[in-house]
Specification:
The structure is a single chain. The chain is mainly α. The chain has one domain. 65% of the residues lie in helices and 3% in strands. The protein contains two helices and two strands, in the order ββαα. Strands 1-2 form a two-stranded antiparallel ribbon. The longest helix is centred in the last third of the chain and has 50 residues. The N terminus is likely disordered.
Amino acid sequence: MAQFHRKYTSLNVSATSSEESVEERSIAPLHERKMAKPSLTKALFKAFGKVLFVAGFFKFCQDVLSFVSPQLLKLMIHFTSDKTIPVWRGYVYAVLLFIVAELQSVLLHQYFIRQNKLGMRLRTSIISAVFRKVTTLSYCCM
């Protein structure tokens, strides 16, 4: 019975020296080996990290544009106080202010949509993992 609980490893190719091209790893029972602890955070980040970064990029762009709007307003105020500036610049400032406001709105909505989807997916995956773990436990463990 004990032989079924042991995990044997095969030969491992070592690239440390040319003389020792193949060395045998020690054979130890599975319960004596040091295994990496499972991490919920790492697993969730691995599964949903890309979506999180895309949403973060949208939020970053929206934050950058929120700093652009006051600069455009400053330019418009300067335009109205100085009569020597051509009229077409005023139109350009107004159109740019409109475009920046629209982009801010679109980016912020995309950010919220992706974050809400991500939150629901995270919640669903955690609940299903807990449910799967609870249903696999035997009655004697409870």
